[in-house]
Structure formats: structure tokens, C-alpha cells
Amino acid sequence: MPEARATTSPGLHGFHGGLDLDYHKAPACDRPIGEMPLVDEYVLPLHMHIGAPAIPVVAVGDHVRRGQLLARPDDFISAAIHAPTSGVIQAIEPRGLPHPGGLSAQSIVLAADGEDREAEPLDPWPDYQNKSPVEIRARLREAGIVGLGGAVFPTAVKLATANPGGVETLVLNGAECEPFISCDDRLMQEAPEPILRGAQMLLHAVGARRCLIGIEDNKPRAIEALQAVIDRLAAEEGERRLEIKVVPSIYPAGGEKQLIRTLTGIEVPRNRHVTDYQLLCLNVGTVANSWHAVVEGRALTERVVTVTGGGVAEPRNLRVRVGTPMAKVIEAAGGYTQGVDRLLMGGPMMGFALHEDEVPVVKATNCLLAMRPVDRDPTPTPQPCIRCSRCSEACPADLLPQQLYWYARAQQFERSHDYHLFDCIECGVCSAVCPSHIPLVQYFRHAKTEIWSAERERAKAEHARRRFEFHNERIERQKAEREAALAKKRAAIKAAQEKAAKKDAKEADASANANGDGSQSATKPADDGQSAASMSIEAARARAKERKARAQQGPRAEGEPDGAERPSDESTERPGGSS
Ligand code: SF4
Ligand code: SF4
């Protein structure tokens, strides 16, 4: 039976390329959201958002309650992590991540006590109108709110970096264009109020004038549920600031730039952000959780996950605590069916295959898709590119995938920059239309990973170089400081010696005068660089010696030679006089 469709809104603008896909949302979307039962153990990776990993604020053995802060953001772009239930911190150690490469990362392991006791919520702000944008952003940061459409970018940062000239239009992304995913659809059907009141709150937080809600026409029940609340809020407010825009179901209508283009006609160029155009785009689930954080003081500890595909017995949407092992979520959806050979996180277009199902649900987990070989088209052997251009005609980012492929395949990653590799949204449209069955998007993901890895290596090398230079500078500085201290010490000794010599010379002169010697001061400037002090000492010594000799010899006869011996006369000696 064909899916029911709502009428698309007038005055929309299309975007380049895209695909008309077959949808498989119904099995999960036709059932209400279920509650995932508590499990014994939750694993919370410290890095489940864009930006720096969070820093644990708990230790092994600590008792925690649901909603309690477990890890704080470590940087401007980072996000807090909270306890999904009450229990004891069992470990902080590396655990497997939901990652295409099967990586592990530092995680907090929480042993649940089954009591699910709640921590004191943050201060609820039903009067958020009295709160400043800065206070609201701080609350979103404190509550660990990130983009739940899959990007997991910290929401407070997204608001903070919006156009300094202000936001004119807030766009709510309810398009959800991946063919199997329906978590946003169910959320809009069942909880339209937090989404729309959240939109009002965010209009206040960013000072925007209006809110457009983009929804694909294959979600008529969600559109109806939202419209009823919008009408009520308009009556309450006395003005209509929220408006639904029903967009055609063309994949990837939910891409941020594609949705903006469809709703407003604005083509956001490469290297520019939608915020440069006084627009801010947020996923509907993110907005609902922003409402819970600001108005109710609740941290983000759960999300709705679509569990679907031919590989699960009872496809459905479940409200799952963050950190729940995926295997338990599959169990809650009736378990696997016979012959499952693949589990994806995300949809078939943009998701990735998991290495195992013991990894935890994280804030980015919008869908678990279990597949059997019969659930997907056979993968023919890739053939050479025939330069048909179908990929570039279909690319919604207006790229040249065949060129990107050429450079990615040749490992000329730098050249792929010239063809705007990083504008590729990895939607998979090019791979889907390629008659040569080339897995283009896999090449692009690989190329990006290689470039990031090279960037990291470059950054590491640069860091090491700076450390080496800093080390050398420090050694040189210390050496110079030591030499300066030594020179200062030498100068002080020299000054002391000079002072002593002057004193001695004066005393010698005084002694000579007392003995009738009319010679002038013993000091005279040293003209050969020799110390004036030592010369004056020598002169004083010589004079003292001469005086002594004279004193011993008595008055000298005319022509008598110097140095003739005379008896000692103690009265001419002064203690220490010439030493
Ligand atoms: S669609 Fe495939 S065969 Fe055609 S140009 Fe693109 S990469 Fe080449
Ligand atoms: S995966 Fe990238 S290159 Fe391919 S169609 Fe999507 S945006 Fe274009």
C-alpha cells in the first residue's frame, strides 16, 4: 500500500540533484514509542559529541543518581555527560565505541542499582523569558544538549556562534529523509508540545522573529499533530510565529543546506555556514530536549532510537537511556531474526556497519538497522568509471564525484581539496546512481579520514617541533642567566677589591705623611688594563718598604745608594700597613 502523503507547501525552492527513494519507515513508525527497560550496566564514552572529550568528575566507587553530572565539558566545543540511571561507578576505562573502525575510547561504566533514583534537577526555568541568551546557552551546556539529528554538535556552541548580527529565522529540521528512520516522526506525533514550546524558547534565546518547521510530505500524522499545537500557541500568543513547511520527500531533503534551500531559496555557498545568513537550523529532537533542559531542568540522558530492518523481530521506536548496550536494545525489539549479517548505526544511506552489538547507544544513535542479505540489493563488482556524469547530476552538494573519486583512488588527497571534498555530506546519492557500481562515498570517507589523519600527524609534528625549540630556548636562557650571575659576582668581587685597595692606599699615604713622606696618593690610573688596585697596592708596598729602609739607615748621605741596610725601627712599622 502506498504511503499517505501530505500536500507540499507552496512557494518552495528545490535543490540540486537528490533521489526519490523507496521508504521503509512504516513497520517501526506505525507503533508508539516504547520504553526501553533498565539494564545492569551502562557505558558512557567520554567522547560522544563533536569537540573535546568530557572530563570525568566522578571516581570509581561513587554512588550516582540519574541526571547527575558524570563528566564536564573540557573546552568551548565539548559537552557534559550525565548518569542515565542510579548506581555505582564501576570503572573508567577504554570500551568499544559505535564506530566504523571498531575503535575503543575512555568510557565511564555505571553499574545500575535498579532503583533509578533521580538527582536533584537543575533549577527549572518556566519563566525563561526572564533569562538572557547567555544564561540559556549556559543551561544547554550544563544539560549536555547536542544535535540529535546525527551531528552531535553542542547546541550551546551552535547558538553562540550564530550570526553576531542576529538570527532572523529559526529552522526546525523534521524532514528525516533516510528511508528506514522514524524516531523524529514518532516524536513529532507523540510529543509536539515540547518541540514547539522549545521552538518558542529558542526564538527568545536567539532573538529570531519566526520559525519554519520543515517536514517531508510522507509524515502526515506528524504534520497534523504539530499543526494542532501551533494553532493553540498562536491563539495564546496572539501572533503566528511558527509555520510548518511541507517539503517533497526527495533524499536528502533533511540535509541542512538542502532544507534551507528548499524553504528559503537561499543557496549557502561553499565555505559559508547557514548562520551567515541569519538562519539557525536545529533538529526537532534537539529542540525538545532543549525545552526539557531549560524549562524543566532535565539533563539529556535518553533519546528515541528507531530499531528496524528485516533483521529485527519487532521493528519499533524505543526511548533508550544513553549508554545502553545495543544488543539489549535489539532484544527489547524482539531480538534478531534468522540470517542477520549486518547491523548498522543510522540509515542505509548515511549509516555505517558496526563491528559488534555490545557497544553502547550514544547521543548520535538515531537508528539501529539490522539487515539480512535478502533485505538489500546484491552488491555487483565495481566496474571502471565510464564518465557518464550521473553522479554529478545527482549530487545534492553540486560536486563532481567522478573527479573526487579519481583523486581519492590515486591517493592524491590534496587534489581532492580542489574539488571540495569537505563539502561532501556523505549522502551516498552518487554511489546509488553510479551504473558502474563504484562505492564512491566509501572512497570519500576514506579520503577524509586520511586527510584528517595527516592533519593530526602534522599537528603532532608541529607540536613536537615547538617543544624542541622551547626546550632549546630554555637551555640558552638558563645559560645566559648563569653567565650574567657569574659576571655580576665577579664585578662585585672586583669592586670589593678596589675598595679595599683604595682604603689600603689611603692608609699607606696617611702613614707616609705621618712619617714625613710628602708623596701624593699611591693610586694612579692603570694604562695597560692592569688593575689600578693592584698597582696602587704595589706602589704603597714599595713606598712602605722604602720608608722602612730609610728608617733603618737613618738620613742618607748625598750619593748614597738606595737599599743600604739599616737597623730595624719598630716605630716606623704600622700593623698591616703594607700588607
Ligand atoms: S556515475 Fe559512476 S561511472 Fe558515471 S561518471 Fe560517476 S563515477 Fe563515473
Ligand atoms: S556522497 Fe558526497 S559526492 Fe556523493 S552525492 Fe553525496 S554529497 Fe555528492
Q: How would you concisely characterize the structure shown here?
A:
With 579 residues, the protein is α/β, with parallel strands linked by helices. It contains 15 helices and 17 strands.
Characteristic terms for this protein:
disordered C terminus, binds iron/sulfur cluster, alpha/beta, Rossmann fold, 579 residues, six-stranded mixed sheet, four-stranded antiparallel sheet, single chain, elongated
| Rg result | 41 Å
Number of strands: 17
Q: Any low-confidence stretches, pLDDT <50, length ≥5? A: 518-530, 554-579
CATH class of the largest domain equals Alpha Beta
Distinct helical segment count: 15
Instruction: Please indicate the percent range of residues in DSSP E strands (runs of 2 or more).
Output: 5-15%
Per CATH, the superfamily of the largest domain is: NADH-ubiquinone oxidoreductase 51kDa subunit
Give the overall silhouette. Answer: elongated
Helix and strand composition category: alpha/beta
Q: How many individual domains? A: 2
Taking the sheet with the most strands, its summary is:
6 strands, mixed
Explain this structure to me?
This protein is α/β, with parallel strands linked by helices and 579 residues long. It folds into two domains: 26-375, Rossmann fold (3-Layer(aba) Sandwich), CATH 3.40.50; 390-452, no CATH class. It is built from 15 helices and 17 strands. Strands 1-14-13-17-15-16 form a six-stranded mixed sheet, sandwiched between helices. Strands 2-8-7-4 form a four-stranded antiparallel sheet, with no helix packed on it. Strands 11-10-9-12 form a four-stranded parallel sheet, with helices on both faces. A hairpin with a 6-residue loop joins β15 and β16 (352-353). Residues 395-397, 399, 401, 424-430, 440-441, 444 line the site of one iron/sulfur cluster.
